[in-house]
Predict the structure.
Amino acid sequence: MAVSKKWASTISVVASSLFAFIIVFQIPLFRVACRNKTCESPLEVISSQLVESELVPSPLVKTLLYPGAIAKSLLRGSPLPSYHNLFHFYHFDHLNTPSSSSDDDIRHLEVFAGCCLCLLGALLSIFKPRRLTFIGTLLIYWGLLRDILLFNSSARVYPTLFLASLSSFLSIRSDVRKIIQCCSSTSKPLSKSL
């Protein structure tokens, strides 16, 4: 029993850290149209909405985006982006113009809600992993698959979304403990019979 708790705790911490890394450093999970550009991570989807609506001060949005901008520039081999030109780096500088894709934004409501839950869950997982991350990834799947199947949209799902959903599921300590206990209880009778 104590071993299953220890394993569950270790798996949960590693999985929640991996999920937070994927969200904060903006590993591409999908491709979806958002306003006048294409977004590939939950933070980009949320930031495009926040920049366009101007509900949140731009320094807060830039602070959320900056770790991912550093990671992207390092992967591309380009110089680090300036904090002040961050919206230009993400092509958010023309979001305040009227968009012809307002219907697309309404269709992507599940994706936006899932992205918000993923970000909130990733930030809260620093203190304690929550189910918000898994629910968020499921909402993103649902929204993207619905758009692809029903509307023939240009949305795409990357394999990294599966990794994110798996790590979000494994970050739930109680569920991982139940899986470990189930696997260990089924393997004991087999070892005794041999």
Remarks:
- The chain has one domain: 2-193.
